Amino acid sequence: MQICVIGAGYVGLVTATCFAEMGNQVVCVERDPQRVAMLSRGEVPIYEPGLETMLKAQLAGGQLSFTSQLKAGIRRAEVIFIAVGTPSGEDGSADLSHVLAVADELGERLDHACLVVDKSTVPVGTAERVAQHINAGLARREQRARVIVASNPEFLKEGSAVEDFMRPDRVIVGCDEERGRELLRRLYAPFLRNHERLLCMSVRAAEFSKYAANAFLATKISFINEMAGICARLGVDIEEVRRGIGSDRRIGTHFIYAGCGYGGSCFPKDVKALIRTAEHEGIEPGILRAVEARNALQKTLLFQALREHFNGHLQGRVVALWGLAFKPGTDDLREAPSLVLLDALLTAGAKVQACDPAATAAVAARYAAAVEAGQLMLSESPYAVAQGADALVLVTEWKQFRQPDFPRIRGAMRMPVLFDGRNIYDADQLAELGFLYRGIGRPA
Ligand code: UGA
C-alpha cells in the first residue's frame, strides 16, 4: 500500500518504519529540513532499540523515504497518518494546533480520495474536527475528492516501540465508514495473525479508548504506590503483597510495581487531558485527580527518605544516583522522577553523582550550571558515581543496575546506604553485604 506518515517524531518514525518493513511504500513528511536530512542519512534522533537498523534497511531498499514537502509526501498516498505532537495546553487539555494545521494543509493540497488517520492521542471529537478542516479546504478549491477520517491510536511503549508495533496486543480502528475500516484491516493484517485482535469501533470510542487505557494503567500504578505507603507503616513488604494480588487473573501481574512514580510523555499528559475533558462535561474526575496527586507525592518520597536519613542536613553530602531517564531503554527525561529528586538535592546543597546509560547528555544540557559549579557529576559508569558517596539511590531500573558488583560498590562508597526507588534488590542480601537498605513500601 502507498502510505504517508506526517510527523517524524517518536510515533511517526516507528509507524513509518514498521509499515515499510511490512512491504508498504512509505513516505514520511517532517517539516524540519534538518531532521529530514538526518533521517535520510539513516541517523535516528531518538533512542529506540531496533529502530535505526530497521530504518536503515528500509531506506536502502527504497521502501521508506523522508521529505519536508507535504505535497510530495501525499501525492500517491492511499492512507495518510497524522502523527504530530499533542502537547498539554496551558490548562492541561490537549493542544490540537499541530493536528489541525496538518488538516488545513491537507485541505489545501489533497486532490485524490484517501483515508486520513489520527495516530496522535487526541480527545473525542477530534476526527470530526479534522474532517471539517480538510473538507473546508477541499470545498474552497472545488475539489471533489472524498476523504474519510479515522482514529487508530497507538499503544507503543518507549523502549519497546518497534516490538509493540510489530506484535501488538490489539489494534484499535475507529472509523464510521466500512471502506476506511477495510483499508486499515488490510494494512494491519500482516501484524495480526489473529484477526480477533483488530477491534473496530466508532471513531469517538477509539479516541476515548486511548485515554481510558493510559488512565487505567496510571491508576494501577498510583494504587499500588498508595498501598506501598500503607504497607511501610504496617511492617509489611509491598513486594509480597504484589505477588499475592497479581496472581489473581482479574488483577494481573503487570503495572502493579510500586516505585518512585510514573513519568514519561504519556501518562502525565493524558491523565491531565482526561481531567480537563471530564470537567468540561461537568463530571468530577475524583479518581483521576487522586491518581495525579499520589504520583506527585510519590516523586518526592526518595528525597524525603534521604532527608530523614541525614537528619535534615544534606548540605555537602555526596549522593550517587542511578538512572535518570523516566524508564529504562530510553533517553527521555520528560516528567522523570529523577528530575524531582535532582532538583531537591541540588537545592538542599548536596553533591550529586549521577549515572544513566542513555540520558546523561540531556541532563548535562539541562543542568549545565550545576555541572559547571561541580555540584553535579555525570558518568556512564555506575561504579564511578558510587565513589565517595554517602548514599546511593536507584531511580530507574536499567538492566545495568540489576546485578552490580555490590562488594565493589560498598568499597567505593563512604557510607553503604542504598535507597531502592524501584524495589529491584533483595533486601536481605543487601543487609548481609553490609548495606543499610531502604525500598518503597518495604519494612526498614
Ligand atoms: C505508555 C503506555 O504504556 C503505552 O501503552 C502508550 O502507548 C504510551 O504510554 C503512549 O500513550 O504513547 P510509556 O509512557 O512509554 O507508555 O511507558 P510505560 O512503560 O507505560 O511506563 C510509564 C511509567 O510508569 C514509567 O515511569 C514507569 O517507570 C512507570 N511504571 C510502570 C511504574 O511505576 N510501575 C509499573 O508497574 C509500571
Automatic annotation (TrEMBL):
InterPro entries: 6-PGluconate_DH-like_C_sf (IPR008927), NAD(P)-bd_dom_sf (IPR036291), UDP-Glc/GDP-Man (IPR017476), UDP-Glc/GDP-Man_DH_C (IPR014027), UDP-Glc/GDP-Man_DH_C_sf (IPR036220), UDP-Glc/GDP-Man_DH_dimer (IPR014026), UDP-Glc/GDP-Man_DH_N (IPR001732), UDPglc_DH_bac (IPR028357). SUPFAM superfamilies: 6-phosphogluconate dehydrogenase C-terminal domain-like, NAD(P)-binding Rossmann-fold domains, UDP-glucose/GDP-mannose dehydrogenase C-terminal domain. It catalyses: UDP-alpha-D-glucose + 2 NAD(+) + H2O = UDP-alpha-D-glucuronate + 2 NADH + 3 H(+). SMART domains: UDPG_MGDP_dh_C. Its EC number is 1.1.1.22. It comes from Ectopseudomonas chengduensis. Pathway: Nucleotide-sugar biosynthesis; UDP-alpha-D-glucuronate biosynthesis; UDP-alpha-D-glucuronate from UDP-alpha-D-glucose: step 1/1. This is UDP-glucose 6-dehydrogenase. Belongs to the UDP-glucose/GDP-mannose dehydrogenase family. It is an enzyme of class 1 (oxidoreductase).
